[in-house]
Amino acid sequence: MVARNDAPAVNAGIGGTALSQITVRGSNWFWAVCAVMAFSTFLILGASYARSRSHRLFHYICAAITLTAAISYFSMASNLGQTPIQTQFVRPNPKVGGIPGGTREIFYVRYIDWFVTTPLLLLDLLLTAGMPWPTILWTLFLDEVMIVTGLVGALTRSSYKWGFFAFGCAALLGVAYNVTIVARKHANALGSDVHRVFLSCAVWTFFLWFLYPIAWGLAEGGNVIAPDSEAVFYGILDILAKPVFSLLLLWGHRKIEPARLGVLIRDYNELPDRSHEKPSHNGVDTGVMNGASTTV
To answer: What are phi and psi of 99, to 5 degrees?
Structure first.
């Protein structure tokens, strides 16, 4: 008995039907990426049990990234989480709605995925570099601006979509500056091993991230490539930017203590190191030195 993918047909019309939308081949590709993301999640969580709970922070962040992506790709493979948007450009190719007033399928669920996962990816990098929280929060804000403007631009049929695209690209440049310039200096100060892990993961990430605006311009923006081609383009980028990134990061972190990065996490059965603390004048241990505690 031959397995058949009925998802595009079963969910046809839910959320609206676009003239240009994924075919069964596009849906099959989405299912394959969903499987990769789900398998990666189980692999990362399994690997986390080889570490103590106080050393699983980066495992859990990476697992959250791939699990969110798996759910997103399940939705897209099912032809859900999308809406038809009238295209700005009319192309002669019938696969991209080659008539005036033609519509293209826009997967808004992809942007929900990115809204959750891209800050987590950045958190992996910025925590590795030992960045201060004000800079981390500002960088995450710029990232959210990038994702939201990308979504609004994709849902806009007029030429004003390129204004949102410009805002998103400016935000991407801000994120790239904070990670590749500012954070790199912090990582270098933590030692050559930390700097090596950070640099390899940061270069890998931003090489891929600068390809996403190209994909957007060819797909949601310019309506140049068909939805199936769009699916393959984004899918390959997401596999490289999420599971492969996670593998690189976690392998690099295997000999790095979180405390070196300014992240001191203590399990419930581990007594804190109180040797550095000073008792109060009344002989009562305050548990705090210099007005701050780094224990989480």
So the answer is: -140, 155
Q: pLDDT tens across 137-159, in order? A: 999 999 999 999 999 999 999 99
Burial letters for 59-81: b for 16+ Cβ neighbours within 10 Å, e otherwise?
bebbbbbbbbbbbbbbbbbbbeb
**Distance from chain centroid for Cα 283:** 50
Cα 185 to Cα 130: distance, rounded to the nearest angstrom: 10
- C-alpha dist (Å) from residue 132 to 112, 136, 172, 182, 273: 27, 6, 20, 11, 23
Residue 120 · residue 64 · CB < 8 Å: yes
What band does 266 get if pLDDT is binned at 50, 70 and 90? confident
Cβ atoms of 293 and 264 closer than 8 Å: no
Q: Tell me how far apart the alpha carbons of residues 243 and 258 are, in angstroms, rounded to a whole number.
A: 21
Beta-bridge mates of residue 86: 103
